């Protein structure tokens, strides 16, 4: 009997680890909170292009809601994460331009610099300083199982960092991206992090980094704060051209995404050209079987004033015998009402005071973030033995 159990031991351990991880993940996720005194909200976005509908529905809309509902005493920190952007090759003039454009876009969606601190990640040295300290205890095995570096390099999900294929293209910065992301969150002692569903795995890693650090250097006391994830109600928004992949700034096909700066005309053209399927010319919601049609229904539902679900919208269309073309016209109409006003505000912010307004907003946000990060770094350095 004993030898059989010992053979099963690795499997049992693995099952227990998976169960523990699922339980801890469920405990660390919420769909909405009302920020109150003591809450610290942090989130980031890469300056790798103009934000699209996926960024908006998966993250930015939630950032604005949290800001608008925050009670006095809540800290709101939103970072344009330029150090993350350079984990893939970037042209320097383009990166400089994208940083400013992202700042203008965040203001255009409704972030208010009087209430939210908006700053470039590279303006706050604490982010990279804490990253180094965390990377001294981060597990290569855990990082190797992360999916983002594989999807960025178009590698299979089961590839390991030591496989020949991965070694040929994988850079250390891209591999250790989740450690920097953990540092971004932990250096600000964020209690809550609003992100899209695609970031779930990284947030779990950040919690693990905080717990490990507290265990190693603080005898279990809360030197670093394990953050809770606030998942946006909008699921992952998919590419309009390949609806099995997520909508992304770096997709080479510009027709795959709706930018927050697109004109009404551009929006209509992209939606009318969206890939659906030839299963039927009627509308039905089936995320696995009909990803293109379901993505359009989800976009519509995300803006529906009556709050109807994608299933309810599909049922409503089927009753009226709506075709896929009718669905596209409907989705385009909804988006044309919502998106172009954001683009107009974006252009006004870019030009305000000859561009100086954006510099001032960033400098103010960075000053708050530098002071906030410095408090954590003092605690961390003392705990590790780097300072007295
Ligand atoms: N398609 C999506 N659906 C829902 N949420 C999304 N987010 C991104 N794409 C979708 C959320 O947007 C926030 C900022 O993301 P990011 O720019 O930091 O990085 P990303 O997730 O890698 O976004 P992109 O657009 O795909 O950028 P590139 O092409 O540069 O990698 C995050 O909260 C993310 O969840």
Automatic annotation (TrEMBL):
Main subcellular location of this protein, as a coarse class: mitochondrion
Keywords: Aminoacyl-tRNA synthetase, ATP-binding, Ligase, Nucleotide-binding, Protein biosynthesis
InterPro entries in alphabetical order: aa-tRNA-synth_I_CS, aa-tRNA-synth_Ic, Rossmann-like_a/b/a_fold, Trp-tRNA-ligase, Trp-tRNA-ligase_bac-type, Trp-tRNA_synthetase
Chemical reaction(s) catalysed: tRNA(Trp) + L-tryptophan + ATP = L-tryptophyl-tRNA(Trp) + AMP + diphosphate + H(+)
PROSITE patterns with a match to the protein in the record: AA_TRNA_LIGASE_I (PS00178)
GO-annotated cellular components: mitochondrial matrix
Xref: Pfam families: tRNA-synt_1b
Subcellular location, record wording: Mitochondrion matrix
ATP-binding is among the record's keywords: yes
PANTHER family, sorted: TRYPTOPHAN--TRNA LIGASE, MITOCHONDRIAL (PTHR43766)
Descriptive protein name: Tryptophan--tRNA ligase, mitochondrial
